[in-house]
Amino acid sequence: MFIRVQVDSADVETVKSKEGEIYRKQRAWGFFKDAKGNPDKYPQAFDFFLSDDQKPYPVNDYVMAGDGLYLTRERFPRLAISKIRLLTYSEAAKAAQDFFKSLTPASV
Fold this sequence. Notes:
Blueprint: E1 4-7, E2 13-16, E3 22-31, E4 44-50, E5 60-64, E6 69-72, E7 78-81, E8 86-88, H1 89-103
Antiparallel strand pairs: 1-3, 1-5, 2-3, 3-4, 5-8, 6-7
């Protein structure tokens, strides 16, 4: 599963939680699909958090990496995102190659 993400601004917003913790977030646009696999007519804006020392993503087109996805066990299993990591198209292509190479036995 690949999700195309477009960052159109490197601006970062700082927000404070009710507990007083400071978080940094950045906005992006996701090109999602419906349950039947049809692309949505319009991209959806979403915010994601950056770690304390993480630089904002520069303006570019990206693919969302799958390593932040996990299955929750609350009430019923569902897919959730722990942390978003964006890859440029060339980084995503290399990651996909590396992934498929890891599935191939060395003797083949």
